[in-house]
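Input sequence (95 aa), recorded before submission:
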Amino acid sequence: MTEAARTEPIAGRIIEVPEDEVQSEVLRNPRSGFIAYVPVGSVKRGENLVTTTGARKGSSAPLMQAVVANLTGDDLVAIAAYVTSTRLSQGFTRR
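Predicted structure, token format:
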């Protein structure tokens, strides 16, 4: 079987795999890291959605309901990809 036959497009999904399967799955090490594979361009697209869409809490939250109602599945994947990528700048370190 060729490599191309064993792969498939991510197609609107986030696929997360352990950096070290033994540490993660066998030893259940809570400090074992993960690698997230996201659709190309989704982190940048998510950043744009998150930073330009308006208030997300407080008294303006009801205003966001219309915006959130119009988000697509791809938009949600992009937002999740961006927000997850920002963890590294908030004190978490890559292993």
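Checked by second reader. The mean pLDDT is 80.
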